[in-house]
Write a structure and sequence with these properties.
This protein is α+β, with helices and mostly antiparallel strands. The protein contains 9 helices and 7 strands. The radius of gyration is 22 Å and the shape is elongated.
């Protein structure tokens, strides 16, 4: 609807001012009324605009964490003010909006149009990439209710996709009660394995140990290789890429488990006993490596 598109534009302008003015919440209501009177006189959508603006502000930390998870090379403060507030609006509607009134793809398309109108030359493509990644992580809600997009000519083949290598580990420690595993929790609600980038010509085990230390503050001794997997991810600017991950079993030899603050996309880290693992919400492609690690630990114990 044209009115809703205008309303989102006004909400974006109010959030732009709020962000530009160091996110001072006491000015927000005044900004909303002034912007509506100036750019949308007679618009009967004030409640909707307030819902968007105040909702984004209320959930800002949560929204920003998810955005950084989907765009790991772009810390939130490095994203242009227009782009990050367009992303916040789109993500707020994806997570908290009325799905019957605003289907997921409509929310994404509206955000892309806002980015094209108010952002820079590449803003539309950037917003499309970030929200598209999040949409897939959410399981593509409403996918069957709208026709799928046709493959764009610029899409590359599987063989042409760039490859990024990562190293991860099932980190364990032994206590009087038995073995425990250290897992990280992401902003999508899953417990998963800590991992990080492996640069060209780096030793896989040494690099994995370094990345685990940077993410969890643990010193580890890398032991058995558990296997490898590959998945396709969408980067906002690089497009689709193949991520190849090698996983190891690793023993904790020091350090206090602590989530490093600079790691975007993660919100918790903890130790779990082996009996607790089956009740955790985990990604399907991670479970085989955790299962293999548990079986190896049982052999160590016997």
């Amino acid at each position: 609807m044209a009115n809703r598109h205008l309303s989102r534009s006004l909400a974006m302008q109010a959030l732009f001012e709020w962000d530009f003015n160091e996110r001072k919440n006491d000015r927000v209501e005044d900004s909303i009324f002034r912007i509506v009177q100036e750019f949308g006189p007679g618009l009967d959508e004030l409640d909707f605009i307030q819902e968007l603006v105040l909702g984004v502000i209320k959930y800002q930390d949560k929204l920003d964490d998810i955005i950084e998870k989907a765009a790991p090379d772009w810390p939130i403060h490095q994203i242009a003010v227009v782009d990050r507030n367009v992303l916040r609006i789109g993500l707020f509607e994806l997570l908290f909006g009325d799905k019957k009134e605003v289907p997921a793809r409509v929310a994404i398309n509206e955000s892309i149009e806002l980015a094209k109108t108010f952002g820079g030359e590449n803003s539309g493509r950037f917003v499309n990439g970030v929200l598209g990644t999040i949409y897939k992580e959410l399981g593509e809600p409403g996918k069957d209710e709208m026709p799928a997009k046709k493959k764009r000519p610029k899409d590359v083949t599987y063989e042409e996709m760039p490859i990024e290598k990562l190293g991860g580990a099932v980190v364990y420690r032994q206590t009087d009660a038995g073995f425990e595993l250290a897992l990280v929790h992401d902003v999508f609600g899953y417990w998963t394995l800590s991992k990080g980038h492996i640069e060209a010509n780096e030793n896989e085990k040494e690099c994995t140990a370094r990345e685990i230390k940077e993410e969890t503050n643990l010193d580890i001794e890398v032991e058995d290789e558990l296997g490898k997997n590959e998945y396709i991810a969408s980067h906002p600017e690089k497009g689709k890429m193949r991520k190849q991950v090698i996983y190891f079993l690793a023993k904790c030899v020091g350090g206090e488990l602590r989530l490093q603050a600079e790691k975007g996309g993660l919100d918790n880290v903890d130790w779990f006993t082996l009996p607790e693992i089956p009740d955790l919400r985990m990604y399907d492609d991670v479970l085989p490596f955790v299962t293999k690690a548990i079986n190896l630990l049982k052999l160590k114990k016997s």
